[in-house]
Structures are given as C-alpha cells and as structure tokens.
Amino acid sequence: MKLATMPDLFDEFMQSGDSLRVYACGKLLFSSLSDRLLPLMEYIGEFSPCFQPATIMDKLAGNAAALLAIKANCRIFYSPLASEHAVATLRRHDVEYHFSKIIPYIKKPDSKDMCPMEKLSLNKKPEEFYQAIRSMLGEHQETGIEGS
User: Where are the beta strands (DSSP E) in the chain?
Assistant: First the structure.
C-alpha cells in the first residue's frame, strides 16, 4: 500500500467539498465544510493549547488565514490562492507554503475592495489578530449577527 504524499492529499482536498483540512503526523486531524475563517477558528478552539506541528490546507489563504494558521502551529500551508500579505507573513514566521496562484490581496466577493478580514489582519501579530476575531465573533453572537 502506497502512502499518500502531501501533494496527493492536496489534490484530494481540492476535489473535496472541504474548505479546510489540518494534518498532523501525516494523519487527518480536522476538516470543515464551513467557509471563510470559521474553520480555522473552530480548529483553534477545539485543539488549543495542545497543537502539534500541522500541515494546513485551505481553499483561500489571505493574511488573516495565515495569522490564524501560525497561531495553530502550522508548519506547512497549501492553498490554490493566496495573497502577497499571506506570503510575507508566512515567510516571517518560517512557515513553508505551496500556493498555486499569488495575488496582491484578497478581495471582497464581487468587488475590487480589499476583504475586511485581510484589512483587519494587516500589521497584526497572530495572537493579536486571533483576539480581535474572537471579540468580533462574540459581539456577533450576542447580537445575532452572522460573522463574515
């Protein structure tokens, strides 16, 4: 039986409906069908503070996702699409990355404007950004507003 390589697992991920997969020691640890940053927040909430070094596969890698991945002890990051901000953040934190396409920044859907989470994440450290998102999610849950 041939063991699957990470590129093989990434191909499988891209064919799936999953938006996020987290592997540790070559085993699938977490997967999610949710979109945006919610899967990374769920992973951090479920596995914190006992993170193993992880390989993360995400359908979209903006700076916000990069910061949360670093918080989750990501050592290797795969995505079909990433922002230049994410690349710079991952380099600064010595995270290996494999991106199919790199764009200047993540845009809002149907807009040329920068995604609000990409904008919020700029010039923040991983923990600082994580706390900002937790605070926002808490406010949205109290008011019944969905997170973006």
Answer: 20-24, 27-32, 54-58, 74-83, 96-103
pTM equals: 0.90
Residue 42: give the domain boundaries: 6-132
3-class secondary-structure state, position 21: strand
The span from the CA of 68 to the CA of 79, in Å, is 14
pLDDT under 70: residue ranges of the chain = 1-3, 139-148
CB 74 within 8 A of CB 95: yes
Is 17 within a domain? yes
Residue 28 falls within a domain, yes or no? yes
Provide the CATH number for the domain around residue 63: 3.40.140.30
Domain count along the chain: 1
CA distance readout (Å), 30 to 1, 43, 71, 94, 108: 24, 7, 15, 23, 27
Q: Are 53 and 72 in contact (CB under 8 A)?
A: no
Task: Concatenate the DSSP letters of all residues of 79-115 into one string.
Answer: EEEEEHHHHHHHHHTT-EEEEEEEESSPBPTTSSSBP
